Amino acid sequence: METRANYILIGAFSAATVVAAFLFLVWLTGFEGDAELQTYDVIFDGSVAGLSEGGDVRYNGIKVGEVTKIALGADPRLVNVRINVDGRTPVKVDSQARLEFQGITGVAFIEITGGTPTSALLEAEGDNDYPIIIADRSAVQQLITSAPLILTAANDLLVRVDRLLGENEGQLSATVRDVETVTGTIASNHEEIDQIVKNLARASEQIAEITEKMNGAVGEIEQAAGSYGALAEDARVLVAETRPALEQLSNSSVPEVDRLLRDTRRMIGSVDRLVVELERNPTEFLLGNEPAEYGN
C-alpha cells in the first residue's frame, strides 16, 4: 500500500508539472483560445531581410499577431507578407506598416501604427481576399538599399583623395616644412611676441581712455549746441517782437530825414559859393561892388 501511494503522488506531481508548463507556455505566447484573428496582406517594396514566418506583428509596440506567409508578388520587386492579428486590433485605412529591427540581434518584425480615431477600419476591396496594407520604407530599409551606393561613393572619394595627395606630395611636404619653420620662429621669439601682446593691451587701454574722453567732449559739444539753439530761439523771438516797432519808426522817420538831407545839401552849396567868392575877391565881397575913392 505504501508503494502504491508513492506512485500516486509521483503521478499527481508529474501531471501538475505538465499542466503548469502548458499554462506557462500559453501565458508566454499570449495565446487566447477564443480570440478571433484577422488576416492582412502587407506589400513591401524591396528587401525584407531578417523577417521570417512566425515573426512578430506589433501595433504601436504591442504584439498583436504573427507572420504566416512570405512570398514574392506578381511584380518581382514587391514582397507579399501575410499576417494574422488579433481581430480587436483597430487597423484603419490610414494605418501604416513598416519593417523594424529589434535591438542589435537583427530580428525583424512588422510594426503597424494606428490611424486617426475617425478613420474607417481597413477592409478588403475588389477581388482581394484580404485587406491590403502598403508598407513604408523604414530607416533601416533605406539604409540597406542605399548602402551599396554609399560604399561606391565613399570608395570614389578615397580614390580621388589618394590621387590628389599623390599629385601634390611635393607641395604638401613644402607646406609642412613652412609650418615647422613658422612654428620654430614663433617659439624662438616668444618673448618679443609676449611684449607685442602687452603693448597691444596697453594701446587698447589708452584707446579706451581716449574714447571715454571723446565721449565727454561730444557731450559738452552737444550741450553747447543746445545752448546755442536756445539763444538763437530767444533772438528770433526778440526780433519778432521788435519788428513792428522798427517798421513804424522807419515809416515815420524816413520823410523827415529826407527833408533834413535836402536842407543840409542846400546849406552846403551856399557855403561853398561863399567860400569861392571870398577867395576870389575878398574886398569886393566885404565892401561891395564900388571901390572907395580917395582924393575926390
From TrEMBL:
It comes from the Bacteria. Pfam families: MlaD. Residues 46-115 form the Mce/MlaD domain. The chain crosses the membrane at residues 7-28. InterPro entries: Mce/MlaD. Keywords: Coiled coil, Membrane, Transmembrane, Transmembrane helix. Residues 193-220 form a coiled coil. PANTHER family: BLL5892 PROTEIN, MCE_MLAD DOMAIN-CONTAINING PROTEIN. This is ABC transporter, periplasmic substrate-binding protein USSDB6C. It comes from Candidatus Phaeomarinibacter ectocarpi.
